[in-house]
Amino acid sequence: EIVLKQSPGTLSLSPGERGTLSCRASQIVSSSYLAWYKHKPGQAPRLLIYGASRRATGTPDRFSGSGSGTDFSLTISRLEPEDFAVYYCQQYGSSPYTFGQGTKLEIK
Amino acid sequence: EVQLVESGGGLVQPGRSLTLSCAASGFTFDDYAMHWVRQAPGKGLEWVSAINWNSRIIGYADSVKGRFTISRDNAKNSLFLQMNSLTPEDTALYYCAKESTLTMIVVGYFDYWGQGTLVTVSS
Q: Can you list the positions of beta strands (E) in chain A?
């Protein structure tokens, strides 16, 4: 099973700032099969990025994903108020499909 | 508009069984694999199970293998999760999620999720 570790656990930033979230895998994620989701309390998770760097339909272009192998990141170029949430990375290169423990992005 | 509506959650005693349902609409259900993902209180997301379009490819997390059974009824646009031998560790919000990729197999990432149904296992 591939274990994903996200850092930091909590990221405190202000609207307009740039945020970078990290996701490190315990093994190589084949074909960069890595996705990022945004999750707000009481809402369904929302797919942001798949294939490590491809924006899902409706994802604003201030979100970008990068990385390969075992190291991946999600960058939000200019934080908007609606971006403050919990973010999860997920690998789907091999079953079981595992998630990171999440990074909480909070308003500073 | 894609909609996934879970039902069937509730309070159940340890060792008992429960069956969750997910009613899908707004897309061609039998074109896509489907998944169950859960979130225990205060914890992160955990993939539980997947089923491809024709039910010939099925997978489970180790934590539920042998106890949970996923199934689907394409005629009724419905997904199910039968949960047996429940333990307090199964307490979670259970989400139904749609596979993002139109494929005959299971790829494993999700473009639509339901709102979830809460399962509480306690005596």
A: 4-7, 10-13, 19-25, 34-39, 46-50, 54-55, 63-68, 71-76, 86-91, 98-99, 103-107
